[in-house]
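User: Could you check the structure of this?
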Amino acid sequence: MTRIGISDLDIFPLSLGGNVFGWTADRETSFAILDAYHSGGGDFIDTADAYSAWVPGNTGGDSERIIGEWLASRRPENVVVATKVSQHPEFKGLSAKNVRAAAEASLQRLGVDTLDLYYAHFDDATVPLEETVAAFGDLVSDGLVRYTAISNYSADRIREWVGLARAAGSALPVAIQPHYNLVHRNEVEEQIVPIAEEFDLSLVPYYALAAGFLTGKYRSTDAAGETSPRAEGASKYATDHGLRIIDALEGIGQAHGVSIAATALAWLRSQPAVAAPIASASRVEQIADLLDGARVQLTAEEISELTEVSAWSPARV
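Assistant: Sure, the predicted structure tokens are below.
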């Protein structure tokens, strides 16, 4: 198990992404995915109030509702659910009033009394940061939220958030959720990891498998022309450099008897400040690879090999 920041949240070191629930996974499939993840030892589920408002016919909160129905049906013990605020169609932004209303709506959809981990999903420059920080602190003081966290914020704004919370004696964030994986490293490693280490914040990276590219599905540079709903995000990495990363993952994975995806997750788990990568599954058959990714231990040499082959600079593109 892994502890998130300075919190008492001890979690399985792989978070199940709920972005697909109500989108590429219907209710029945979502339940099967959650069952497989939990029966395999998983206990850390990530979602957001906006998931999946972009799907025709959905309203936002769709993922939370499915997770809430699963929690009510299965009544699992010690499951940690993280959700986020700022992007729901009815609860846009991070004003104090909106943060409170969105949290109450998330609590109702999830069917819980307290949100374990509550993220500011995206920075909101239209609201003074003091107001947002105070609103999150009040949620903790009032028992609606156990711990607060930050997603998609710059290092400077994270530092400012922590400073404001300290000055006010308010709840300090315990985690940062950045975009981080083997093909998207520089910004996080140069700017976010140092501040996470300075303030004892854990990283819970999203896009841990680069929208599917790091599963090895795209093994040719010809894949760059793919246009299916989820393929566009992944296929852009199908460059010569990206394919060298896949080849290295495959070789190392074979030595451990695990998949390319599991190996990519294991590398990310090994990085400074990372507590648990987030990865989603649209089919129950994909869960085994995610569970492997939480357990396989790469050698120092294997980690170095992947770090070296994935090193990126503008001159190489």
